């Protein structure tokens, strides 16, 4: 039991404890002041679209980033920022919804929380689509560069292939003549 009135949580109209957002537990996957990670998952929402998953996935993604270059690293950094914003938005909505149940006009409060969450989701979605478009363009550029390199290599090897084809044709004709002589 708290010893002073300052330590007691305030009570809403329904008698439920109303906690400020900073007094609630940290969002899942965040670090506590003690340096330990919060691994609990209190949300019932699906994971973000490009969530990293586990630490093993993070390290493999980081090694792929270094192999793919700075553009891929930039995309992955921006994707992680969007994923973090999505998680924070979901967490803020959960806190707001929790606090709504201590007010008299619960539905109105929950609807306002939904509206705020949807507005943030729309902004995140707009940025996600822009990022996806940029990644698609970059991937197409890389694909075109690879195709151009292969085409240049193919054209550079054309004289050698022509010489091999000519030798093979000459060897075939020699064998045909030899076979005709033998019969």
Secondary-structure map:
Elements lengths: L9 E2 L5 E2 L36 H14 L1 H31 L5 H51 L1 H25 L1
Antiparallel strand pairs: 1-2
Helix pairs in contact: 1-2, 2-3
Kindly describe this structure.
The chain is mainly α and 183 residues long. The N and C termini lie far apart (112 Å). α1 packs antiparallel against α2 and α2 packs antiparallel against α3. The longest helix has 51 residues. The protein is rod-shaped, with a radius of gyration of 32 Å. The relative contact order is 0.08. It has a two-stranded antiparallel ribbon. Helices cover 66% and strands 2% of the residues.
List descriptors.
about 65% helix; 4 helices; about 180 residues; disordered N terminus; two-stranded antiparallel sheet; single chain
């Amino acid at each position: 039991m708290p010893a002073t009135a300052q330590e007691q949580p305030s009570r809403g109209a329904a008698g439920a404890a109303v906690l400020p957002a900073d007094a609630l537990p940290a969002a899942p996957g965040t670090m506590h002041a003690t340096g330990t990670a919060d691994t609990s998952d209190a949300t019932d929402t699906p994971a973000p679209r490009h969530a990293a998953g586990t630490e093993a996935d993070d390290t493999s993604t980081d090694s792929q980033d270094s192999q793919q270059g700075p553009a891929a690293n930039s995309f992955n950094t921006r994707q992680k920022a969007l994923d973090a914003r999505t998680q924070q938005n979901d967490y803020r909505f959960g806190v707001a919804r929790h606090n709504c149940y201590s007010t008299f006009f619960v539905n109105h409060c929950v609807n306002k929380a939904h509206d705020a969450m949807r507005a943030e989701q729309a902004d995140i979605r707009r940025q996600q689509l822009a990022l996806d478009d940029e990644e698609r363009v970059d991937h197409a550029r890389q694909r075109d560069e690879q195709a151009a390199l292969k085409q240049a290599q193919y054209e550079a090897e054309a004289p050698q292939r022509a010489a091999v084809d000519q030798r093979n044709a000459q060897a075939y004709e020699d064998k045909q003549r030899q076979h005709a002589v033998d019969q």
